[in-house]
Design a protein that fits this description.
Protein name: Sulfurtransferase
InterPro entries: GlpE_sulfurtransferase, Rhodanese-like_dom, Rhodanese-like_dom_sf
Structural class: alpha/beta
Strand content: 15-25%
Low-confidence stretches: none
Domain Rhodanese: 17-105
Number of strands: 5
Pfam family, one: Rhodanese
Shape: globular
Distance between the termini: 27 Å
Mean pLDDT: 97
Helix content: 25-40%
Order of helices and strands: EHEHEHEHEH
Length: 107
């Protein structure tokens, strides 16, 4: 598993020369409604084992949660299931709000 910071992910998303990764938000729907990064795919952690077939095993996937703990667990799980390019965004959406988008609500 690879790690990426909020600012590194923002730079990746802004780089038109790089393919956009799948942004996998593993928080619960109520958390997502409070705040989320644009263009994420919501897949709550508890649903990943039954929904992982919705993901391309060869795609670059960045797992995101509130602070980075749940997303790290999901990233480990996906790698164990054969996913090749999985990243964990350290600090989660909280770090995104502090470092990238100060207009994003925090909780």
């Amino acid at each position: 598993m690879q790690h990426i910071t909020a600012t590194e992910l923002a730079a990746w998303l802004a780089d038109s020369q790089r393919k956009t990764p799948v942004l996998l938000d593993v928080r619960e729907p109520a958390e997502y409604e409070t705040c989320h990064i644009a263009n994420v795919q919501l897949m709550p952690m508890r649903t990943v084992p039954v929904r992982m077939n919705e993901l391309d095993q060869d795609a670059e996937i960045v797992c995101i949660c509130h602070h980075g703990g749940r997303s790290m667990q999901v990233a480990h799980f996906l790698i164990a299931q054969g996913f090749a390019n999985v990243w964990n965004m350290t600090g989660g959406v909280h770090a995104w709000a502090l470092q990238v988008d100060p207009s994003m609500p925090t909780y």
